[in-house]
Amino acid sequence: MKNTIIVACAVLMLIACKATPTPLVADVTYKSYEKQIMSVASIGYGSKLETALENAQKNAIDVILFRGVPNSSLNTPLVGTNESNAKQTHQSYFEEFYANKRYTSFITQSVSNTPIKKLENGNKGIKATIKVNIEALKRDLESNGIIRKFGY
After folding, report:
1. What is d(CA 28, CA 56) in angstroms, rounded to the nearest whole number?
2. What is the distance between the alpha carbons of residues 79 and 89, in angstroms, rounded to a whole number?
3. pLDDT tens across 125-141, in order?
């Protein structure tokens, strides 16, 4: 009886996994960090090239702020790991930061270095190199009370 229940549960789990499509995940990888500028490779999606590049930029900023960049000196996030709590606590800052595309003021360079790939849903995907001024981003977060200055 136990074996039948275990097998039935396993079959149901496999069916549920196949029925649920895998969501697209922001793919951001470390490239270099020189003179306060971090360079990352970021994948973005959108209906047009410009939209896909903006999405790649936003993904890079999100990873730096809330997830940390693996294999870099910034492997811990600037703001913290609880993204929804931070965005709720500092709602006006993050609304203005994203809605007005203020995050682009910290991006020193964006270069699409792979051809556009068409996805099944009609969107396009690109891989871009995004360079972010980490020190300016930290100063902005500190001056707006999002993070504390180191040592205080």
Report:
1. 9
2. 12
3. 889 999 999 999 999 99
State whether the Cα torsion 7-13-15-17 is positive or negative. negative
Spatial neighbors of 36 by CB under 8 A, at least 6 apart, are 133, 134, 135, 136
CB 75 within 8 A of CB 67: no
Indicate the pTM of the whole model.
0.77
Which residues lie below 8 Å from residue 23, measured CB to CB, with a gap of 6+? none
Nearest-Å Rg of the Cα atoms of the chain is 19
CB 146 within 8 A of CB 85: no
Residue with tokens 């074996």: 3
Q: Do the beta carbons of residue 66 and residue 80 sit within 8 Å? A: yes
Count Cα neighbours of 67 within 13 Å in the Cβ-side half-sphere: 15
Q: Please write the tens of the pLDDT for every residue from 63-74.
A: 999 999 888 888
Q: Which two tokens stand for residue 136?
A: 């300016």
